[in-house]
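Lecture 7, part B: from sequences to assemblies.

Below are the input chains for today's worked example.
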Amino acid sequence: MNLRLRIWRQPGPAAEGALTSYDITGVSPDMSFLEMLDTLNEQLAERGEEPVAFDHDCREGVCGACGMVINGQAHGPERTTACQLHMRHFADGDTIVVEPWRAAAFPVLRDLVVDRGALDRIIGAGGYVTAPTGSAPEAHATPVPKESAETAFENAECIGCGACVAACPNGSAMLFTAAKVVHLGELPQGAPERDSRVLDMVGQMDTEGFGGCTNTGECATACPKGVPLPSIAAMNRDYLRAVRRGGGR
Amino acid sequence: METALPTVLGMALATRTDRRPSPARLLWRSTIGKKAVMAVTGLIMLLYLVSHLLGNLKVFAGPDEMNGYAHWLRTVGEPFLGHEWFVWLARCVLLAAVGLHGVSAYQLSRRDLAARPVPYAARRRATARDSYATRTMRWGGVILALFLVWHILDLTTGTVNPRGRAGHPYENIVATFSTWYGNAIYVVAMLALGLHVRHGFWSAAQTLGVNRPRRERALKATANALALVLTAGFLSIPLAVMTGVVS
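Predicted structure of the full complex, as structure tokens:
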């Protein structure tokens, strides 16, 4: 396959960026999107040009490191991560536009790499269980109803890639925050801090400059892990209850 | 992990001593709280619209019925309430609802737009979930706010009404819908209203945490039904005047 790529190139956080066109040859339909970028970088290096910087780690769709907006869609046309998106979903001769996640809370560091520290700070504000629990407890020590376990797991699948923020027209981190709030709030270990957790995490989310939720549903459509939209309703429910109760402290 | 643990404990101990702001302040400062304000005020306005529609449909029963109803509205609660007290009470509640709804929408919109300072170069494909109603909430709201001003000047104060006689709503309604601009403004506003209610009702349910996976379909169906009934119901009046059913 031969493709034309239009990739966002930006040398540094404060530098001006622009979309730059590259023609790439010899792309196999079995390559992942990241392998295709590797191939491009090899070709760029051979020509003595600066390779395209992009985040990546596990390359098997579980770590959440990779992420880019491909033709206007977070992680591209398939509902998966960019590393698990294969070139067979594109046609020979296609022009593909590749941009970094766009959000005020995600400053571009270089090319397609953005600083997602805002998400870490939301987790740091309360996305944990305070009690030190040591190693993994025995599975049946604390019984969890099946429905709660399933809801918690569905939300625990979040890999923090930031696609929800990138896809949201408001650059909102509601789905990300909701995934953690619902995951921990649903389990007995997380229940004691349920009120303070949701208030602290939402407070941090607002401080980071993410937008609000207008219920467009773009986040849940883009989420490679299928965190459902009703999780946002569940977080809203938790938040409003926590405010009524006076914040759990 | 060994080194991270004391930091986590230290944070938890440190945050335990600080006080949270009052619930009202907490709500007004947070995005979720402001959305909740929008949801509640939106539902108040929606409730009013349903009763407003039921009242307006009396236009089909003739001038005596319609004008009698308008007169009765001013006597509700008497002798406990004074003349027109009920109407003014309702107006105060509605004014507060409109004001809070608008201010919240403005502040949230500014925040939302600032959160995506650099737009995407590639146009994103509209997904099934991102409907026309969702995308037109902001400008649709502005259209509705402008219409509200026109509507009050037209049929409450009678300032811009071609007839504008106080205490004769039936004749005023016929007069305004006998002009092309009166009809045009009204039709555009009612279409905007339908779209606004369609996304707004479901959005309010989501914001107030009423939505759950198994309720999603029922809530969306209710939103669509409400939007359709309100738009069709309100539009039936200018249509009746235009076709001569009401004259």
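Note for the exam: Chain B has one domain: 33-113+136-243. Keep this in mind when comparing with the next example.
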